[in-house]
Amino acid sequence: MTLGEVLLWNELKEDKMLGLDFDRQRCLDEYIVDFYCNDIMLAIEIDGMSHNHKEAFLKDEIRQKRLESFGITFLRFSEAEVKYDRLNVLRTIEGTIIEILKSNPNVKLPANFDSSLLM
Fold first, then answer.
1. Global confidence as pTM
2. CA separation (Å) from 63 to 14, 36, 70, 84?
3. What is the CATH number of domain 3-105?
4. What is the pLDDT confidence band of residue 49, given thresholds at 50, 70 and 90?
């Protein structure tokens, strides 16, 4: 794991993100994503320096479109964003989770979830 992945994992593990269960290095279809919440079908990727090349970018784009075709919401952050702007990364993740929950009322909310966030 890169430093950015470790930092973000520390914020996601043990149901810390709004009580939702995230997995690390989750296999989906023929791909592995950095983090995944099955309950809301949210994948999160942290892109390091190797993703800055055109070939890697194109592969990432194909992979993301494939996973999105299954109904998975995809968030992508750079390693630098996670390391140096983690608060905004976490806000983006929380905002995305809330939007997913608002649009999918059938999702079972975690026991300690603050339902006022959905108002």
1. 0.93
2. 27, 15, 11, 26
3. 3.40.960.10
4. low
